[in-house]
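EI: anyone free to look at a 306-residue chain?
SC: sure, send it
EI:
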Amino acid sequence: MILTVTLNSALDVTYRVPRLRPHASHRVSAVGERPGGKGINVARVLAALGHPVTATGFAGGPAGSLVRELLAASPGVVDALVPCAGTTRRTVAVVDKASGDTTQFNEPGPLISAEEWAAFLARYADLLAGARAVALCGSLPPGVPVGAYAVLVRAARAAGVPVLLDTSGEALRRGVAARPEMIKPNAAELAELTGSRDPLPATRDARRRGAHAVVTSLGPDGLLAATAQGTWRAAPPRALSGNPTGAGDSAVAGLLSGLVEGLDWPDRLARAVALSAATVAAPAAGEFDPRTYEEVRGSVKVTAAQ
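SC: here you go
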């Protein structure tokens, strides 16, 4: 089983409008609701790839109930979310059909009490016993200690379970020092961590800070990976238009599934790039277009980086 952790789970709401204009009223042509938060998106993609997966984190209030109801309809994902008294946040994505651009609004999340955090830690320890790998993903809700991911990385390492960490800011800075198996920042998160905007030296610098491997997302330009086995760039054959929301989460699913399957790094990166591209072509985060995935995967260019 692969375990995904989404401490700040969400109800993802997607509005599609003909054209997004500031200071104007809009008629929404379509509305979508999905269980969300980065780790839940990862879980849904892993399940679609055929991997047994369990999703944990927090869920509470009416939005949390709807997240769990929708998650129950997601084939292959086991719900191990921990109840909380606060209400799960919503994220609202507004898709401009004319340009293809997406505007995102993210609520902060519920306030987590010390007792709720302790209950989560107990559940997490139990789940680690059956896990082959763990993805720790996304922002921290209010009340959760800023060093939470460092605690979770160390617990997984003590249990012999490899960890992929995908977060930002101080949570990433503290988490990487706990030596996770992988981190997957985007270019902005990497620059914040290292102080450098040059992706290649910054990726190598992030690895020296504690992660065994660093895979940096370069948006439409693909991925840059620095590992003990080498450094690679992986690029899609062409840019795809669509909604990029969740593309990074699909890349995490590709990297994590490749890890548990024992794929070498070039194959892991090709899978991650193809899944990311196929998510841009899908209607919502946590999904990917299978035809695009198969088409792109065989055409991803993976080259050694100097």
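EI: The mean pLDDT is 91.
SC: 👍
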